[in-house]
Design a protein that fits this description.
35% of the residues lie in helices and 23% in strands. It contains seven helices and seven strands. The chain has helices spanning 11-21, 25-29, 34-47, 78-91, 129-139, 157-173, 181-189; strands at 50-54, 70-75, 96-101, 114-120, 140-151, 194-202, 208-215. It is globular, with a radius of gyration of 17 Å.
């Protein structure tokens, strides 16, 4: 059940922002987020199978996957997806099933469609993060994983003040600066079939985290051996 929210972003703002980013996204963010992308792909390939990349953008991550993974990509921005399709065609990425313009909060896929849902630098850009996570869990198969790379805001101190000060400008760019890990923890606590498996810092400056959630399998629980690195 979705918890109602008071969104400080909307899809029109986000789509317009990323339409502006599309021509330069790889140049501006390619190297900055490289470690996070590789970590997310590595985590996804530990599960393998059919992978959904939400917020696939220009498709910069798609060539990193092995040919054994079957890839689907969605994004709110048509200009970003055009870049992704060009990359798929140029590199002959035969394991890409398709790319679709789609709202992350309303995915047009049946329940239990994917072994892994990957979302890199996405959750802080959507209008309703918890509802979006619910949608990820819906399309995920039992025993599968949600793999996120996400900016994590601080709870106090100077950095917290700076994040609050910068938030109005960040909103125009299509993302949030204020987003604590507590929101993920609360979402997992109210979602009985999802369990935190891992949380670890990612560059740059440790402001981002790799976060993995597992969906209970047919036996009713995630493999506990996968949860050893989970945050307390």
């Amino acid at each position: 059940m979705n918890i109602p929210s008071n969104p400080d972003l909307d899809n029109v703002t986000v789509a317009k922002a990323y339409a502006r980013w599309a021509p330069v996204y790889d140049l501006v963010f390619g190297a900055v987020f490289e470690r996070g992308r590789h970590a997310a792909v590595t985590a996804a390939e530990q599960i393998g199978g059919r992978v959904l990349e939400v917020g696939v953008g220009t498709g910069i991550s798609l060539p990193l996957y092995s040919s054994n993974c079957r890839l689907c990509g969605v994004d709110i921005s048509a200009p970003m997806l055009r870049k992704a399709q060009e990359r798929v065609t140029e590199l002959n990425l035969a394991n890409v099933e398709g790319l679709w313009v789609m709202d992350a909060e309303h995915l047009s896929f049946p329940d239990n469609s994917f072994d892994v849902v990957v979302a890199q630098y996405v959750i802080t850009t959507v209008p309703n993060p918890e509802a979006t996570l619910d949608e990820f869990a819906r399309v995920l198969k039992p025993g599968g994983q949600i793999v996120l790379v996400s900016r994590i805001g601080t709870e106090a101190g100077l950095r917290r003040s700076l994040e609050h000060w910068f938030q109005p400008a960040a909103r125009k760019l299509g993302w949030r600066t204020e987003f604590s890990f507590a929101r993920y923890a609360r979402w997992a606590a109210r979602t009985p079939d999802m369990q935190l498996i891992e949380r670890r810092a990612m560059p740059p400056f440790g402001h981002f985290n790799l976060i993995r959630f597992g969906k209970h399998g047919a036996e009713g629980r995630v493999d506990r051996s996968q949860a050893m690195q989970a945050a307390g």
